[in-house]
Amino acid sequence: MSNFLEQAQKAAQQGDWLRLSQFLQQWLLTEPNVPLLEADTRQGLALALMVLETGDFQARWDVAKVFPALGEAAIAPLIDLLQDDEADLESRWFAARILGEFDNPDTVQALIAILQNAEDEELSMIAAEALANLGASAICALTSLLANEDTRFLAVQSLSQIRRSETIAPLLSVVNDPQPGIRAMAIDALGSFHDPRIPPLLLQALTDPAAIVRRNAVASLGVRSDLINELDLVSPLSDRLWDLNLDVCQQTAIALGRIGTDAAIDRLFRVLTSPHTPLPLQIETIRALGWAETEKALECLQQSLITLDPSHTPVEVFQEMVTILGRWSNPNLKPHAAAILINLVNSTHPITTHPKIKQTIALSLGHLGQLVAIEPLSQLLADEDIGVQLHAIAALKSLDFQTSLQHLKTLARQNNLSEAMKRGVAIALQEWKGEMGG
Fold it and tell me: Which of 2, 211, 329, 404 measures 20 to 30 Å from 53, CA to CA?
């Protein structure tokens, strides 16, 4: 018997389940490519089952890693534990999870039996996940459960996690099921396949009575850029921007941002600037425009800054637009994004009285890295809010350390500076001096 097995045996006698599990793992790792002796396998399996049946959660979690290495000898005792109604429920959960590592007909049948008969919902869900892990070998057995109303939900849950083309047909059979949860899972799973039968069903699901189904249909269509022209995808999706369910509206904004065509951007702009759009949807729409990252999207954000009435628009909307402008990564469009922010900071727009907005403008200009921003950032040093000053200093440093420093030194030598600007420049130079080590 292996020395590690002997130590595991002693740990079992002491009821030290964690150490027992550790010794078993060490035993299996010592010579991973050497076939296990039958006697050692029986002994190791008995000890592992002991932990699974009587250990605490952590010990069971650790020992679960041991069973796959013990091979098919572990299947029968794990099935016995899974089917034992008198056993501790947590140990049965672990048995179900572990069986999902064994692609074997007996395993499939045992897990299917749990879906059909188990009274504990969580045990059934774990069995469904284990079947999904088994993949192709479980598809036929799961398909047979679709006919039974009591097992259909969990069967669809398992099938929806097996992303193989063999699941398309059974999932298609439940897209009109009376249960919204089943329809939603089926639509979500089918959306990952490129099959000509699926797009019409996704379009149909956009008007499903259940919001979760509509949301999943929107999400599935939002990643199908190949269908933009074929289905005139922007039009049916855009209707969902005005859905009664806010989650559906927000998911639609994300989808249109991913599509990113001029038509999609126009629809997002209408929602963003509508006085009836709730704040969460406005925020998501701004992020969607940022996701699109096109010239058209930039123009829409620029126009929105002008169009939206500050007296009726939450400041969070303007702050989000300024933030998104600072995240523009296309090097050809960064100068335009910076110009929008510079024009804003130099304007008399009411939102520029908010310290948080000015701080965000400084931060965004720093992220964009355009040297043309040095002058407007320097002007923010005269702001009465110390937070604005510090954000401006950080942005200047991130643009170009030496160029910004030289600009500040030039400013400091001017005689016509306001007292506020003098103080701001002095603070900035002191910051530079400290960073340069005096």
Answer: 2
Question: Which residue reads 């929008």 in tokens?
Answer: 340
The contacts of residue 300 (CB under 8 Å, 6+ apart) are 265, 266, 268, 269, 272, 289
**Which pair of tokens denotes residue 377?**
């950032």
**How many Å apart are CA 96 and CA 92, to the nearest integer?**
6
In this predicted structure, what is the pLDDT of residue 315? 94
* Highest averaged pLDDT of the listed ranges 97-101, 266-270, 380-384: 266-270
Residues 6+ apart with CB under 8 A from 366: 326, 373, 377, 394, 395, 396, 397, 398, 399
Distance, in Å, from the CA atom of 234 to the CA atom of 237, rounded to the nearest integer, reads: 5
Distance CA 403, CA 397 (A): 9
DSSP 348: -
Q: What digits encode the pLDDT tens for the residues 17-68?
A: 888 888 888 888 775 656 677 788 888 889 999 999 988 899 899 989 989 9
Please check whether residue 403 is in contact with residue 432, taking contact to mean a CB–CB distance below 8 angstroms. Answer: no
3-state secondary structure of 30: helix
Say if CB 108 and CB 131 are below 8 A apart: yes
Residues contacting 271, CB < 8 A, separation 6+: 241, 242, 249, 253, 277, 281, 282, 285
Q: What pLDDT digit, counting tens, does each position of 358-370 carry? A: 999 999 999 999 9
Q: How far is CA 162 from CA 103, 129, 134, 142, 192, in A?
A: 14, 10, 8, 11, 11
Q: Of 337, 314, 311, 318, which is closest to residue 326 (Cα–Cα)?
A: 337
**What number is the average pLDDT over the span 195-214?**
96
For the whole prediction, is pTM greater than 0.90? no
Using only C-alpha atoms, what is the Rg of the chain? Answer: 31
Angle between helices 149-161 and 105-117 (to 10 degrees): 130
Check the CA dihedral 97-98-104-105 and report its sign: negative
CA-to-CA distance for 352 and 33, rounded, in angstroms? Answer: 68
Distance CA 306, CA 430 (A): 37
How many CA atoms lie less than 13 Å away from 146 in the CB half-sphere? 25
The alpha helices in 100-230, defined as continuous H runs, are 105-117, 121-134, 136-144, 149-161, 168-172, 180-190, 198-205, 211-222
Residues 275/281/287/292 CA torsion (nearest 10 deg): -80
